[in-house]
Amino acid sequence: MAHRNWLTAGALCAAIVFAACFIAAKPSSADAMLLPTDRTPLVVSTGSGDRSFSIEIADTSAEREAGLMFRQTMADDHGMLFVFERTDEVDFWMKNTPMALDLIFIGQDGRIKAIKRGEPESEAIISPGQPVRFVLELKAGTAAKDGIKEGDLMRHPAIGSSSN
Q1: In angstroms, rounded to a whole number, what is the distance separating the alpha carbons of residues 14 and 19?
Q2: Span 32-54, pLDDT tens digits
Q3: pTM
Q4: What is the CA radius of gyration of the chain?
Q5: Signal sequence span per UniProt (predicted)?
Q6: I need a surface site. Which of 28, 71, 93, 147 has the fewest CB within 10 A?
């Protein structure tokens, strides 16, 4: 009888340790990467006037890979600008990203090439179908609400200072 109790206690302890490891390994909003907000706002020139956004700039490989993963919330006037080394075709996905996003694909010249919607936690590939140099991620619906359309011009030192 004592042997059976020992086995039951051992199995129970193993289950608790396994569950604790599983819970600890599950990413949370505390795992989200927070980059400093750039001092200069990004401005989008739309047909109905300029729209201004505070942005974080993801310009390293590690920062671009993490992006807005695990973020639960973001201000309506805030976004993340992805800066690539050269103009090229890019693919995004929303794995580990709980917020729906607008992905605004921008050419070397600062002009918007495409606007796509990213669905939360989706592994579907999001691509503009043409080479771009920058991508701006905003809360889903922001582009439509602010009248941001393909062909509009984005202005920011990170865009203006890029070469290639």
Answers
A1: 9
A2: 888 999 999 999 999 999 999 99
A3: 0.80
A4: 21
A5: 1-19
A6: 28
